[in-house]
Amino acid sequence: MIAGLNPPIDGLEDFSMESRAIATPWSRIVRGLGLGQYPIGYDQHAEKCIRHSIDQLCFRVDNVDSYSRFASAIIDLILQKTNPALNLSTNKTDSLVSTVVGEIHNISNPYFRVTAGCILLTSIAKLNISRAYVSGSSLDLPAEILTSMDEIKPDRIQDENQGRHGDYERISAWATVFFAFGLLGLNERLVTTERDYIAEALSSLERVPSPFFRGRGGSMLISSIVLLGHKNRLLDHGHDHIGSILSYLDRAPELNSKPSFPSHMSDHFIKAYPLLTMLNAIGIAELPMYLTLGRDRLREANDLIVAIKPVERTHMGLYYIIALYNLGCIDTALPDKNYFIERLVNEWKNIDPGRDYFLYGISYSYLLQLAYSTGRCDLITDAMIDRMVTAFASLERTDMSRANRPYPFSYVLNVLADLGVADRLYRPHPFYCGRSPFSWVMEHMSPKGEAERPRLYMINHALINWALRMRSPRVKSARKSTYCIDTKCTQA
Q1: I need a surface site. Which of 93, 148, 163, 432 has the fewest CB within 10 A?
Q2: What gap in Å lies between CA 331 and CA 308, rounded to an integer?
């Protein structure tokens, strides 16, 4: 293991229930789910890096990006709360929370407003702050979040899959809401005499036309509902929601609604991704009968993992391992687990992370998390990390790759912070003529970050995640939440 490496866990057995359900960087960086996993305690040097990073980002965008302002405010709340030298008064805590709420109100996009609100609720829960600060006589943020959910309309995502999403964004937002409300013990808000939000969320599944997005989004929704304690709702009114999604995945060839990606992805990858996420949800729900519904799902998953291209496998390997672990069959389904992991992680030697910002650009981040999640940090080398942090300059070659540089950068920041070696982004590097990789990336943003604006939220999520990890791992919340946050959970 390289010097200074400090993995957050020693293997799959250390996963909390939250980590089992929200295991991959995609959930944290793209969706803002499960931020603050693996608490490590306060670190003064890390605080300086985090504050410097968010200040630089806000400076580069001239404070015109409302989501970055929100991120700055909540990071300030988190860092002041986790600093043991500070003993925040009630008035100071109220002031900090009010500042965050004010920035949430300034976010015009309802999806991102919901996400920001849920990140605050998650932070309140994990920092053991009284929920009265966000749900009292003068402010009811949970109610505001539910109201904002009604503003999220179908097919509003502006990307290469315009028209294929349907209610995918609403489903993703519902999963975020359910996870956050569960952590804060607000389950009673979700099923009332006036509205049944769980039923509304489940009905949204039928309004996602693409099998890929229905499977990927549906899997997180199912996991969130299970952890809320409403597993019985998956067979609500005689409708089998898991079975329906699996059957819809099987119809993908006839529906001919393939998603587009920033990089060319094989048909095998397009089939594997939603299937593996659904297998993970089935594991979380402890419903193994679905593994043989319609076909042998484990065999199908294994065949797809073998068939996809090696660089695609760098993304899917982590999903595959986590799903098998949650299903309780990793030793039987993958008896050569160590060989599989070794061969996959060592694939970095054949991959150029600067080739593009997506398929190749985030591949190393997935490999690093696969290594530490399975207790194989011995596979991580200095050369691997150095190649990853020097890849950002290669993205100068096209306007599109430059505009999307925050995508791989956020993934790299996230995983290096997880491993305790985020300083590799903040110290001078000869490849960048003595500038640090972080400084170089910031200095090469477009004026006011206009070109990068759609991706900046990903850097914000990585920084919030890092900050929230600095709460004490020894302090457990006195609040009753739906599921365990920081403690290991024994598989059933």
Answers
A1: 163
A2: 22
Average pLDDT, the chain: 93
* Residues in contact with 203: Cβ distance below 8 Å, sequence separation at least 6, in sequence order: none
Q: Output the six-digit token pair for 23.
A: 């295991």
Residues 6+ apart with CB under 8 A from 98: none
Residue identified by tokens 């998650």 is 122
Q: How far is 273 from 213, CA to CA, in rounded Å?
A: 10
The full length of the chain comes to 492
DSSP string of 361-429, one letter each residue: TTHHHHHHHHHHHTT-GGG--HHHHHHHHT-GGGGGGSHHHHHTTHHHHHHHHHHHHHTT-GGGGTS--
Per residue in 72-113, pLDDT (tens digit) is: 999 999 999 999 999 999 999 999 999 999 999 999 999 999
**How far is 186 from 203, CA to CA, in rounded Å?**
21
Neighbours of 427 (CB within 10 A): 9
In angstroms, rounded to a whole number, what is the distance separating the alpha carbons of residues 101 and 87? 21
Query: Alpha-carbon distance 300 to 293, whole Å?
Result: 12
Per-residue pLDDT tens over the stretch 411-442: 999 999 999 999 999 999 999 999 999 999 99
- Tokens at residue 223, please? 């996991």
Roughly what angle, to the nearest 10 degrees, separates helices 110-126 and 141-149? 150
